[in-house]
Amino acid sequence: MARTIILVYPNAGQDVLGINVGLPLSLLYVGTALKSAGYEVCILDQRILSDLDSHINAAIDTNPLFVGISSMTGYQIGHALEIARKIRARNPTIPIVWGGVHATIEPESTIKHSLVDAVVIGDGEETAVELARALESRTDLSKVRGIAYKENGNIIRTQNRPQVDLEKLPEPDYSLVDVKNYYTIGHISRIRQLQIVTSRGCPFHCGYCYLLRPELRGYRTVSAKRVHASIRHLKEKYDVRSLFFYDDYFFGNRTRVLELIELIEKEPLGVQFEVSCRIDFIARESEDFLVRMRDAGFTELLIGVESGSDRILKMMRKGFTRTQILEANRKLARARISSKMSWM
Q1: Could you tell me the pTM of the whole model?
Q2: Which CATH superfamily is domain 183-343 in?
Q3: What is the chain's Cα-based Rg?
Q4: Alpha-carbon torsion 27, 33, 35, 39, what sign?
Q5: What are the residue ranges of CATH 3.20.20.70 in the chain?
Q6: 111 neighbors 99 (Cβ within 8 angstroms)
Q7: Which residues of the chain carry a pLDDT beneath 70?
Q8: What span, in angstroms and rounded, lies between the C-alpha atoms of 77 and 32?
Q9: Residues 280-297: pLDDT tens digits?
Q10: What secondary structure does DSSP assign to 98-123, as a single string?
């Protein structure tokens, strides 16, 4: 009988169902990899479970192979620690494995905590499967790349794991969650939407960004053909009319953007997109191209402007100017593309 693995997504802060609680895609990707490898997977999302404690207790009583907890830096860590504390109290023999952004950028401080037995560093899909197999067979964890763990009171960090090829990952298995709990609302359109991710990383170097860490550098994408197929699947199966792209930066490969636009022009999807973008991308593009973007579905852009001062923009290493901000806004207005801009 396949061993069960529990994956937990803690409260992230200011979570409002139906507004901003989106799919736990990080756990869906890891859970899909584990399920494909033959394991039973149970995802528990504190943001939607009012009685998480009872679900945790029931899951722990099945004697899972391990419990994985995903956490970002900040507010989510407190909830993650409280969940880990309850797991430890219920059954102190079950390994507690932390992953996600915080564990990746701060593996040394994370693994030192008494409520952490192992840390997954970087992409979790391949690492989680190898870790599960090692724990199941009780073999040496030092052979599992991309983790830190404790052994006889010592902290051991294994060899780094290369970043995964996103094109080779299977589509997320949405049956691992109840999708109807994860519809959010478009920032501007107010249309009900689901979420998707089609790339990881960012090719730029904004001075304040966590993606500057060596573990997270590089920009990887899923092909335009596969993005088109994923959008079509979500529309056909879940009747979505809008998608929020969780990509750190969607427009990092213009060729891919153009290929996706051309695919949608040939086979319209009837779905609108809310996507992160940069001012300089808009400023460089022709208004004809922006209209094609809009007609393909790119109707809402989230843009990190951060400042209207050239001095501050240079200090932040944003890579664009006040003049480009103004020009981009004029172009967006003429192309009738809505935008939401963030400022520091």
Answers
A1: 0.93
A2: Aldolase class I (3.20.20.70)
A3: 21
A4: negative
A5: 183-343
A6: no
A7: 1-2
A8: 24
A9: 999 999 999 999 999 999
A10: EESHHHHH-HHHHHTSTT-SEEE-S-
